[in-house]
Amino acid sequence: MGLITLELFATLDLVAQSPGSPEEDPENFPFGGWQAPLLDEVSGAQVDAAYEGTDALLLGRRTYDIFAAYWPNHKGSFATLFNAIPKYVASRGTPDLRWDGSTQLGPNLVDAVREIRDRHDHIKVVGSLDLVQTLLREKLFDRLDLWVHPILLGVGKRVFADGTVPSNLTLLEPPAVDGEGTVYLRYGLDAGTPEVGNMDDLQGG
Asked: What is the CA radius of gyration of the chain?
């Protein structure tokens, strides 16, 4: 069974809307492109390494449209990878699947995601915040790569929103910090739900 990894870039208050440019998702959001001033060579290398071995993309409709308009016209390692591998689109509408290798998922999203999980080894979900909420709710992911950037925006769509359910995660490697103060965290989904307790028990009284 393949691994599904959520690749997410967020602010310290976990806003993840439109990090790359103002045009990505401008809906009620004045800070599109907030990530660009915070990128450096360290975080760039982390992102490159995170995509090694990727053999499929799972995308929401908005992210797919952005990628389909951009990557076929560009060169470089990411363009080569993204243009070559299968792209699966979660959409209730009728997306224009003009990007080579693109397939729209069926109406039963959960079953469709399970099917592609059996078909590929390393599936990446990039952005696609509405889709991410479904995957969080159904626990249909294996890893979460989260870059937390040292800014607060106060508005915007957040990583953990309506799809969040009680879940246990395990830190898979030590946190890494780049020169701008961005912290890279890689978690794996663990079994069960969070336990609760009483601080008095820990303090011996």
From this structure: 18
